């Protein structure tokens, strides 16, 4: 089964717990789930939400793998 941002957040304890840990609102985390990806700021290194979610969930994933969740199709289109 492929990991999605929604399942990662669920494994990390849910929207409210992730929001507290990332110091954002639960609404922001819900927007990440809806978008299927973390904010661009995490990909650019301005935030570290991916690492926080990895730590909370206990999944064995590389931080870049989590940062790129939901973006692989977007990156392929941009490269074309």
Describe this structure in words.
It contains 7 helices and no strands. The protein is globular. Helix 1 packs across helix 5. The C terminus is likely disordered. The protein is an all-alpha fold and 80 residues long. It starts with a helix and ends with a helix.
Fraction of residues in helix: 55-70%
Structural class: mainly alpha
The CATH class is Mainly Alpha
Low-confidence stretches: 76-80
**Tally of structural domains:** 1
SSE inventory with pairings:
Blueprint: H1 5-11, H2 15-22, H3 26-35, H4 40-43, H5 49-57, H6 63-67, H7 72-79
Helix pairs in contact: 1-5, 2-3
Brief overview:
With 80 residues, the chain is mainly α.
List the keywords.
434 Repressor (Amino-terminal Domain); mainly alpha; globular
């Amino acid at each position: 089964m492929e990991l999605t941002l929604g399942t990662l957040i669920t494994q990390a304890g849910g929207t409210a717990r992730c929001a507290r840990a990332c110091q954002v609102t639960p609404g922001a985390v819900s927007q990440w789930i809806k978008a299927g990806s973390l904010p661009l700021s995490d990909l650019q290194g301005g935030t570290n939400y991916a690492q926080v979610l990895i730590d909370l969930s206990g999944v064995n994933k590389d931080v870049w793998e989590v940062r790129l969740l939901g973006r692989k199709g977007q990156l392929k289109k941009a490269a074309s």
